[in-house]
Every structure is written in structure tokens, then in C-alpha cells.
């Protein structure tokens, strides 16, 4: 079919459009993330292992005069790049609360309850294996679900699973992310510097005030959010990713022109554009340019700044930040010594917490609520779908790896936790796919 906007240039047909289809494919981000994790494991067990691990220890500093902030590359990724990931999570949470699945308590009660069950039971299983000592602090690791991997598997199934299942798992994972953010905020912070924290609170007040008086410039929120709020939290001892979520909640979620006003103004401008005298050349006239600028202005203000940011930042997070995080954190050395760690209490606590705890928590609490008639399953959502969802919720890759870095100072425990995360995520993903795929065939 002929393109209604005219003939496409070769660069559009052969480069831009294929890349666009690749980026917008729902399964692609999960594939890229898995590939990055697999590459990290391969490099960690190759002749380049020492060089690979030393690379993440490279020191980077920012500052001026006597003020310097110096961290190694690994910490910049976990404290800096992951703050961008959490910022997008915050944008998604706000959108869902305002106008998404979390806006209607009746629709949200079941997946939120599933998320709560899927956090409490895994933590309890982990604590069963690790009731005391430094290993005890890893109880938050098996509480998280990786939305990219879980949804990636669902989209591989295509229309063989109902849309209600995809919505249910999305809301569950979003609520799970919120729970993980709260766990990090309250339980995985170091000694708090009250001066820096109060400074951060001041920047937060500035951001909220800007929202209330109608500031819509995203660059303003970026400068104050990063240069002020994030940096203050980084220096305060409260994990800097919490600042990213708080900053996201200050981004305006209202439009300057609603649908009717936008349609009315657009029709007026289109009429003016049609009536404008053309110059019969590839360039437009000054009058046409003026009209096109107005069309661009009203189009921009017909979208909320929140949605503009979420839409524009999603490819950055999915295809750069999360894969880089996986490269920096997923590498484990597979040897006789590391395989002996499979029986460690940390590995078993994480593995069974994610695989068994998530399944039991999600399926168990949803079953109880539906039996008590407090809530009902969505249309087309069967008990087999619920079991598959419980298994997919056991994919705890990104957030679990992140929390493991916060939970332990001893690198041995971090490596043991990684082993449990990777194994549980692999098994949970395979079993979830098999259960849902077999159900669709039947």
C-alpha cells in the first residue's frame, strides 16, 4: 500500500523503519536483556574474565575545586543509571494510579493482592533458610518480579493467552515494583545525613511547587531532579533511586489542550494551512511555517509531560540502561567452587523464595480472595492462567540483582544470591511458558 505521507527515502525503508519495528516489538527488550546477562556470564568465564571485572572497577569522578564525588563504574551504574530506570518506573506508577489499572480499586485489588502475597511468602521462605547473621539481610531479594522478562514471555505466546492475563501480570509487576521501592527506602539505606536529606526535601518542595503553578518544561524538572534531588539523596545515605521515583511523581500529568480543544484548534489551523498560498517549491512559505509551528505547539501540549517522558525514555531504559546493568551485575564465575554454593543457604533461600514463594504467594492469596467472593478473576482468566502467572512472577532478574548488591557487603553472599536469582528466573520462565502454552493448546 502506498504511503499516504509520500514516498519513503531509502534510509527510512532500510534503516529507520526496521530499527523502529525492532525497538517497538514487545519481546525485544527481554531478548536484549537476556543476551546481556548471557554475555556477562560468558565473559566472566572466559580468558578475559579479569579484564572484564577490572573494567567495572574503573574510577570516575565528577566535581569542581575541592568538591569531588568519586565512585567506580559499577557504583555509577547502580546509583546513577539505575536511578533513570527507577524514574521511568515512577512515571509508569503515576500514570497507572491516575488513569490506568491502579486507578480503579475494584480492578486492581486482585493483582495488588497477588503482588503482596508474592512479596511476603518469598521473604518468609528466605528467612526460613537464613534466620540470622549477615545472610539474614537478603530477605528482600526474592520479593521482586522482572516485568521485562515476564511480559516478554507472555508476548511470545501472542494471542494464545487472553489480554486480561497480560493486564493482570502488568499490574502485579507494577505493584511489585512499588513494594520493592518501599523496601529499598525503608530497609536498605545506610547512615542518614540529615543535612543532605533536608536539602533534598527542599528540592522536592521546589518540584512540587513548579507542578502546582503549571511549569511543564521537562528540562526544568530534569535539572532540579538530577542536579538537586538525586545528588542530595546520593549524599544523604538514602538510596538515590528513591529520589528518582519521587521526582517522577512531580512530573505534570495534565494536558494544556484537552481532546475537544485540540481537535478544534487543529481543524482551524489545517484550514488556514490549506488556504495559505503555496510557493510551488520544496520549501514552505513563511506563513505556512508559522502555521506548522502552531500545529507542533498544540500537538506537544495535547500530551501530558509525564507520557512524553515515559514514551521517549522507554527505549533508553530498555535497550541501554537495563542491558548495561545486566552486564555489570549478572556475571558469575561457574566453577567447582561456585557450584558448591548451590547448597548455600543464601542460594537456596533466593531460589526457593522466587520459584516456590512467588507461586505460592500469588496463587494462594488470589485463590483465597476469590473463594471468599471478595474479588473475582477477570473474564477469560482461568486457574491455569493463574498458575502460569505465579510462575512468571518468579522471574526476579533486574530488581533482585539490584537488591542483592544493597543487601550484602560480603561479595561471596552477592555471588550466591546471583546464582539463585539466575537459576530461579530461568526455571520459572520455562515452567511459566510451558504451563500457559499447554493450556492454550488444550
Structure write-up:
The structure is a single chain. With 442 residues, the chain is an all-alpha fold. The protein has 18 helices and two strands. It has two domains: 317 residues, Na+/H+ antiporter like domain (Na+/H+ antiporter like fold), CATH 1.20.1530; 42 residues. A hairpin with a 2-residue loop joins strand 1 and strand 2.
Estimate the helix proportion, in percent. Answer: over 70%
Average per-residue pLDDT, rounded, comes to 82
How does the helix and strand content classify structurally?
mainly alpha
Strand content: under 5%
Question: How would you sum up the major sheet?
Answer: 2 strands, antiparallel
What is the helix/strand order?
A: HHHEEHHHHHHHHHHHHHHH
CATH superfamily of the largest domain: Na+/H+ antiporter like domain
Rg, nearest Å: 24 Å
Amino acid at each position: 500500500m502506498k504511503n499516504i505521507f509520500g514516498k519513503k527515502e531509502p534510509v527510512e525503508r532500510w534503516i529507520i523503519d526496521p530499527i523502529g519495528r525492532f525497538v517497538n516489538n514487545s519481546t525485544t527488550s527481554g531478548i536484549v536483556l537476556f543476551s546481556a546477562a548471557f554475555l556477562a556470564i560468558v565473559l566472566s568465564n572466559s580468558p578475559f574474565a579479569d579484564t572484564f571485572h577490572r573494567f567495572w572497577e574503573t574510577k570516575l569522578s565528577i566535581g569542581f575545586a575541592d568538591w569531588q564525588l568519586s565512585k567506580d563504574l559499577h557504583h555509577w551504574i547502580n546509583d546513577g543509571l539505575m536511578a533513570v530506570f527507577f524514574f521511568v518506573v515512577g512515571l509508569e506508577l503515576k500514570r497507572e494510579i491516575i488513569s490506568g489499572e491502579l486507578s480503579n480499586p475494584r480492578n486492581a485489588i486482585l493483582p495488588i493482592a497477588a503482588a503482596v502475597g508474592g512479596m511476603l511468602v518469598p521473604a518468609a521462605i528466605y528467612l526460613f533458610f537464613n534466620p540470622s547473621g549477615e545472610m539474614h539481610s537478603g530477605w528482600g531479594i526474592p520479593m521482586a518480579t522482572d516485568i521485562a522478562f515476564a511480559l516478554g514471555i507472555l508476548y511470545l505466546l501472542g494471542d494464545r493467552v487472553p489480554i486480561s492475563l497480560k493486564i493482570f501480570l502488568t499490574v502485579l509487576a507494577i505493584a511489585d515494583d512499588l513494594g520493592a521501592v518501599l523496601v529499598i527506602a525503608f530497609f536498605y539505606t545506610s547512615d542518614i545525613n540529615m543535612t543532605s536529606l533536608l536539602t533534598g526535601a527542599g528540592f522536592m518542595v521546589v518540584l512540587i511547587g513548579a507542578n502546582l503553578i503549571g511549569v511543564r518544561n521537562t528540562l526544568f524538572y530534569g535539572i532540579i531532579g538530577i542536579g538537586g534531588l538525586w545528588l542530595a539523596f546520593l549524599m544523604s545515605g538514602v538510596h538515590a533511586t528513591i529520589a528518582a521515583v519521587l521526582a517522577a511523581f512531580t512530573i505534570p500529568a495534565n494536558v494544556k489542550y484537552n481532546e475537544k480543544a485540540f481537535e478544534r484548534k487543529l481543524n482551524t489551523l489545517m484550514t488556514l494551512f490549506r488556504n495559505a498560498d503555496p510557493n510551488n517549491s520544496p520549501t514552505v512559505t513563511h506563513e505556512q511555517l508559522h502555521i506548522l509551528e502552531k500545529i507542533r505547539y498544540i500537538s506537544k501540549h495535547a500530551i501530558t509531560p509525564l507520557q512524553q517522558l515515559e514514551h521517549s525514555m522507554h527505549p533508553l531504559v530498555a535497550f541501554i540502561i537495563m542491558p548495561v546493568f545486566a552486564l555489570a551485575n549478572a556475571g558469575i564465575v561457574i566453577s567447582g567452587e561456585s557450584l558448591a554454593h548451590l547448597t548455600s543457604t543464601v542460594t537456596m533461600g533466593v531460589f526457593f523464595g522466587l520459584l516456590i514463594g512467588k507461586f505460592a504467594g500469588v496463587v494462594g492469596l488470589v485463590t483465597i480472595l476469590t473463594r471468599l467472593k471478595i474479588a473475582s478473576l477477570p473474564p477469560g482468566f482461568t486457574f491455569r492462567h493463574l498458575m502460569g502467572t505465579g510462575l512468571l512472577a518468579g522471574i526476579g532478574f533486574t530488581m533482585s540483582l539490584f537488591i542483592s548488591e544493597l543487601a550484602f557487603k560480603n561479595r561471596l553472599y552477592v555471588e550466591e544470591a546471583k546464582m539463585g536469582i539466575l537459576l530461579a528466573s530461568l526455571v520459572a520462565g520455562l515452567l511459566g511458558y510451558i504451563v500457559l502454552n499447554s493450556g492454550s493448546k488444550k
